[in-house]
Specification:
HAD-like_sf; alpha+beta; 33 helices; single chain; nucleotide-binding; globular
Length: 1157
Amino acid sequence: MMKGSQQQWPFLVPPPRTPGKEELPVDIDSSIPVSSMSKPYSDSQIEMSGGFVRNPSSHSIQSKSSSTHSIKGVSFREGHDLNPVSYGSRGASSGSNPVRYGSRGASSGGFTSSYKEINDEDARLVYVNDPGRTNQKGFKFAGNSIRTSKYSILTFLPRNLFEQFHRIAYIYFLVIAILNQLPQLAVFGREASILPLAMVLFVTAVKDAYEDYRRHRSDRIENNRLASVLVNGEFEDKKWKDICVGEVIKVSGNQTLPCDMVLLSTSDTTGVAYVQTTNLDGESNLKTRYAKQETQMKAPVEGNIGGLLIKCEKPNRNIYGFQANMEIDGKRVSLGPSNIILRGCELKNTDWVVGVAVYAGKETKAMLNNAGAPSKRSRLEKRMNKEIIILSIFLVALCTVVSICHGAWLRRHREELYLMQFYRKYDYSEPEVEKYEYYGWGMEIFFVFLMSIIVFQVMIPISLYISVELVRIGQAYFMIQDDRMFDKSTNSRFQCRALNINEDLGQIKYVFSDKTGTLTENKMEFQCASVGGVDYDNGKDISTEDGQTGYSVEVDGMVLRPKMTVKVGQDLLNLSKMEHTNEGKHVYDFLVALAACNTIVPLTVETSDPAIKLIEYQGESPDEQALAYAAASYGFMLVERSSGHIVIDIQGKRQRFNVLGLHEFDSDRKRMSVIVGCPDQTAKVFVKGADTTMFKVIDKSLNLNMVNATESHLHSYSSKGLRTLVIGMRELSTSEFEQWQSSYESASTALMGRAKLLHKVANNVESNLKLLGASGIEDKLQQGVPEAIESLRTAGIKVWVLTGDKQETAISIGYSSKLLTSKMTQIVINNNSKDSCRKNLDDALQLYKKLSNVSHSNDGGHGVGTNQLALIIDGTSLVYILETELEEKLFELASKCTAVLCCRVAPLQKAGIVALIKNRTDDMTLAIGDGANDVSMIQKADVGIGISGQEGRQAVMASDFSMGQFRFLVPLLLIHGHWNYQRISYMILYNFYRNVVLVFVLFWYVLFTGFTLTTAITDWSSVLYSVIYTSLPTIVVGILDRDLGRGTLLKYPQLYGSGQRGESYNGKLFWVTILDTMWQSVAAFFIPLAAYWDSTVGGSALGDLWILAVVILVNIHLAMDVIRWYTITHIAIWGSILVTFICVMIIDALPFLPGYW
């Protein structure tokens, strides 16, 4: 039936090949997630008869040097045709429908622009190897020069100043400086009035200039790198910045891609290439990319290519999507995400690739995504801005009092003004008598008001912004250097990715945590299996064959052994060798499914013994790796994978299975399948997935007892905290295979609705399955998780766990992690309708009231007491609750619970749960996770923490902080969070205190000068007060001071509650601080005044005494509040007083400065 016919593989993902393996002479017609066999097989190839594959000859596995051991794994995520949630950008999404946290069909709402039909208006035409025609007038595309810097020499000053003046306080001080330049309002020297603002602007500008210089230097290095570009039939070196869209580029192994380019050919005969996307998405896993066989055969490495036209979508930010068509020899070929390699990716395990540039420079997907996470502002900073507004109002009130009093004074002395200096009508101070400009009573009051604002401007602490930034940098340094948060397993330290929310770590009330990879290690270990309705986990399955060596096979004198050994059950091992019995056949199919139904790439690794080599399984999913190692331990060892087949060593006998198609796992189907041609000339589809979806496609009529027994075993596994998967299969008849092949070819080449069509094809083939069994995989808790959760709970922090695992698994992990305890009353909500959800919520609230009343009567009215509640709710229920009127009831119930466990939740539902609390309370929220499915939750919370785990680095890249283990939350929050909050809180209040003290001293002096705003304190001392005299001590104390030691904070987690209650910075403390300044300013002003009341000491001398008194006063006040003294603290505090004395003497000694005497 199929001899000589083309045969397409499924579009979603083509199976990867084992790097370094010798390929069979099989022509691949399509390299997008589909493969096809474009020619009839020769005698040396696989023979097809009646649609089934004959047993091919086995191929020996080739060794891989130990240097390859650094490869982390292979990811095929880019091959997804279903991309339910895009975290990177809205630019890639289509449609305008709002995101709904509770939506059940998150993945079916709409596809990205990569899967829409490309019309002429939205298309980009790229003529291969014809950049002139591609970039003709009117269609010129961006060059490949990139620029990440913000400024140029000409734009730095205006743009930097524009950005800095986004701070309202800076505008305030600019207005003050401008007012002081007017002759009628000149209180300070013109230069002195500009100094504070100028210094702050200068320091910030220097910092920004240095950062931008580094970006300029990086851009220059990047743009001047060399690439091999096809020019006149030969490849020549060309600078990256000179590359144009349409040019053909050759990239060698371990080189970085200069632009986004569609693959035309690779060094592999089947068109396969491997890339590492660390620079793009942070993942170190290898990804597979494919060249079309039509272009692969044109041998572009020799310069013989041209006449091709690519019609692709316009540039967008979706790094996981791409759609294009290629016209070649009158034939239109579709291109997908697996045919394009993006700028910044690195070529691995491939000698060379040749491609054509389709997006260059700023239009590449990497550059379009070159933006940081949304900026967050700390709660203290928001409150500080409110207090500054209050101080501004207080300043206006003070100036109003002075101006009104001055007006009253003028009215009372109006008859004497002619005789008084500054008010008489004629000025006799100069030889030529001039008429003095007296503006009248009303204008004089107005001028005095403006002059008051200038004199009292120090009320608003301009240096506070710079000081807080410097303190946060110092705090971040000590957090990074803390060995308590150093992960030895990954050799990684704590990372502070956002410097502006350090103090929020001391006010957290809710922690939302992922489970897999966050609470657990995400290192899966196969524990047990249910095969054919029999549970092979009876407590005796703890031995391994051949002692500790596990399964091994000898090939050409070389011993191959799985890198990881797995516990095997003797009964299951014996049945695996009895293929001809019914039970043995069932076990055989089950283990073949474990070895074949995956995207694992096997690599051979050298050992110290040259006669022994290890098989290492690289893959994106730790679950797949665990199942592959389990199959290998039972004698079904995957030893080779190519673009068209896999080789499994079954009990020492090499057997080749031709991979005819593979539908990868997606969040809608929650299962994956592979269609293989087996050695017994049959075609089978093997499927594995979550039990909730697998039992819907299992044909229960085949063996109902087996299905019931398997379901019972699954419940038992889940209760032990194991992750479960169900395995099924179906043998395809010739007609079924032909129907699938035809449907798939139509779906994979469709220009519109491709994703939905492919999804339908997968659902059709994954039906009426025979149940093979189920697996139980253990994901062990990370070290210290139970103790960490206990400490956080004692500290008054509520821990909620949001996971995609099934309910039984999540509950088991909840008990082992101490999230759930036997003393808790569990409330379980898992419903399939809105009405039932409403009823369950009402019943749960009634239960809480009953328990509360009972406890109230038993403990004398002190609350719920020992009746702690734990809410367990699943994602299906959240569909009917989130963003409906039931949200309020869920919030009311959840806020009363000690623990909340959400199971089977989608990524957007995780963000919805965070929003549930964040939108209804003032409590601070923290989200922690390790995978891409946690990104929305991390960005939604007030503080987001990424775990550097096994699931890539998307969570880390979207987070504010990152660390290696969940247990590091304890020192981060209880120690550093507490310290940061206490330090910043005190620093803000102290800055208000020291500035208001000086303002009141100036105000008291105004009372003795007829409210004329003359000052005894020199201009320079006034402006240097916040910048030099008192700034350094506050910074040092803000970085180093500790109210409590590490041991005390860890021993008594309840101390963390001070931050949650806002005890160190609140409205009461603010007003107490302001009142405190009043009597202290009275002492600082009137004591020196009284001491020299009847003396001949002038105003300037008293001004020096007053500024010295204020500096000594505020520094002694600071010294009294310091709890932990260091040498640098002494130097900063006492040194500041000494510097003040020196500066005052210098100012008084220089004749050209005001105040010289």
